[in-house]
Write a structure and sequence with these properties.
The complex is a heterodimer of chains A (112) and B (443). With 112 residues, chain A is of the alpha+beta class. In chain A, 20% of the residues lie in helices and 37% in strands. In chain B, a hairpin with a 2-residue loop joins strand 3 and strand 4. Classes of the chains: A alpha+beta (112), B mainly alpha (443).
Chain lengths: 112, 443
């Protein structure tokens, strides 16, 4: 099993969700997060003074999938969230040791 | 108590009306007896509640332009200052402002001090009214009180996010009971500035610049917010809620029709009603001019339009037209307001260069645009002179600034006006009040 964590532009969430639903992904978790990468924040003006927003708003998506689905999920997220501009985000793939469905007690791939 | 000063004006109007009625007796039967008294009083009540709602405008503008952690405190200050103004103006302010020709120092200090405001008796008969040729005393009191409260509202925005509640309210009491009414008596009470020929129709100087001077003195004694000016740079602290700030600005814009229109002080003749109508239209034109100039200038200068400057620009346009909303044409009113918008766009960064921290831009809007509006009167009104306008601006400005600075300094020495840096970082809502504006938002 793999655990995929994607940090994307907030405006891309709907497109990513639709694309993932299209390849049969049945569940995911999202959260609103703030951070920076190579983009290093962004310059804005407020009442005639320039300032830098250091932490930009992003959306984090977390998905647990069977190992054979992992590459496809990463490609799908990439395709749906890519604008080509700096700040599009990153996707991390982690090994997932165990999973348990709370209601039924199923474990492993059956719990996904 | 008779309104001898204003009754001269309204008696002239009434005399003109009587002449007209005598020429057309049929018409006279259709106009109710004491029509001037009734219509003038109605103007004061209608305009008065429009000006009252400006308190909500100031409150929402400030609530929108402070950071979320200081919102409850800003709302608390606005509620309290409006209420304190009602007490200060009742106790001594009204009679200090309107000596009705009876001075203890001629043209400078009312003899009706200290004395509380008194209304006409319940169900007063026409012959027992204080001034049957003018308006009911309570309508006049109500209308004038709202101007006094507006002056206090101007101060709270500048000093937001770092001043303690109680020292601020103590200053508000002194401002509304003494500072505002005393200098207002020099013009609107028939004092020496009025004798000199100073013209300030609804108070670009008497209300707005006075609020601005008091705010400037407070900002100098209080100092900038922690971290606002760091290593020679200005660190912007964006407001938490621009929809509220915009709503507040529209409310002020609406209230200003009462502020300027009511200052005609009469609605009992065709010419008075026509003048009130001119004033409404000119007031709107000036706000539009100020708003558009700020919109275009920020787009040109910063490549992006800045809403907060557009809001300030509309208000500066309104302040600019307040000294003379009657005589300009619609086009000239738009231009006078437009200069107000220009003032805002340049004065806001200028104050930052001087490290004077004005959270909502009240000093550019009320003080600097107020000076401009007062100077603009002779452009369209031949009765005004630049010399008299400038002299009056300097006298009112010096008096208000010096007295305010002394009062702020004394309050600071006695009880301290500033919260600790720790409280400032945590936010005044949590630290001073223990009550957040949006407790269910996690951020």
């Amino acid at each position: 099993m793999k655990y995929i964590v994607a940090i994307i532009q907030p405006g891309r969430l709907t497109a990513v969700h639709e694309a993932l639903a299209g390849i049969g992904i049945e569940g995911l978790t999202t959260s609103e997060v703030q951070g920076y990468g190579r983009q290093k924040g962004k310059s804005e003006m407020y009442r005639g003074a320039e300032y830098t927003v250091h932490f930009l708003p992003k959306v984090k998506i977390e998905i647990a999938v069977d190992a054979n689905m992992a590459d496809k999920v990463v490609e799908t997220i990439k395709a749906a969230s890519e604008s080509g501009k700096i700040g599009d985000g990153k996707i991390f793939t982690l090994d997932l040791e165990a999973a348990t469905r709370i209601r039924t007690g199923e474990t492993g791939a059956d719990a996904l | 108590m008779s309104k001898s000063f204003y009754s001269k004006l309204s008696l002239a109007g009434a005399a003109a009306a009587l002449t007209a009625f005598a020429a057309t007796p049929a018409l006279a039967q259709e106009v109710p007896e004491h029509g001037v008294f009734i219509l003038n009083s109605v103007l004061f009540l209608m305009a008065g509640f429009l000006v009252m709602f400006m308190a909500a405008g100031f409150c929402m503008l400030e609530a929108g332009l402070v950071r979320a952690k200081n919102t409850t405190m800003q709302l608390t200050k606005n509620m309290a200052l409006f209420s304190i103004a009602a007490i200060g103006y009742y106790l001594v302010g009204y009679n200090l402002m309107y000596p009705l020709g009876d001075w203890s120092i001629d043209g400078v200090f009312s003899s009706l001090f200290p004395a509380v405001a008194v209304m006409e008796s319940v169900g007063v008969a026409p012959e027992a009214a204080d001034d049957i040729g003018y308006a009911s005393t309570a309508s006049d009191y109500f209308f004038q009180l709202m101007f006094c409260a507006a002056t206090a509202s101007i101060v709270s925005g500048t000093l937001a996010e770092r001043i303690k509640l109680w020292p601020f309210l103590l200053f508000t009491l002194i401002l509304t009971a003494f500072i505002y009414p005393l200098q207002a008596s020099w013009k609107w009470g028939g004092g020496f500035l009025d004798e000199m020929g100073f013209l300030d129709f609804a108070g670009s100087t008497v209300v707005h610049s006075v609020g601005g001077w008091a705010a400037l003195a407070g900002a100098l004694v209080l100092g900038a917010r922690a971290g606002k000016y760091k290593d020679g740079r200005v660190v912007p602290m964006p407001g938490a809620n621009l929809p509220l700030a915009t709503l507040g600005t529209f409310i002020l814009w609406l209230g200003w029709f009462g502020f300027n229109g009511g200052s005609q002080l009469a609605m009992g003749t065709v010419s008075d009603v026509a003048d009130v109508s001119r004033i409404f239209a000119n007031t709107n034109a000036a706000a539009a001019g100020g708003s558009l100039v700020a919109l275009i200038l920020t787009q040109l200068m910063y490549k992006k339009a800045d809403l907060t400057m557009v809001l300030n620009g509309a208000l500066a346009g309104l302040v600019s037209i307040t000294a003379e909303p009657l005589t300009p044409s619609l086009g000239v009113a738009t231009l006078i307001g437009g200069v107000g918008g220009l003032i805002v766009v340049f004065a806001v960064p200028m104050l930052d260069k001087l490290k004077i921290d004005d959270v909502v831009g009240a000093i550019p809007v009320h003080l600097i645009a107020g000076i401009w509006g007062t100077l603009a009167v002779p452009l369209t009104n031949g009765d005004a002179s630049f010399g008299t306008q400038i002299t009056s601006i300097v006298i009112v400005g010096a008096f208000t600034f010096v007295v305010s600075w002394v009062v702020w300094t004394i309050i600071n020495l006695v009880m301290g006006i500033r919260v600790s840096e720790e409280v400032e970082l945590e936010g005044l809502d949590k630290a001073e009040l223990g009550m957040e504006s949006y407790p269910e938002f996690s951020k």
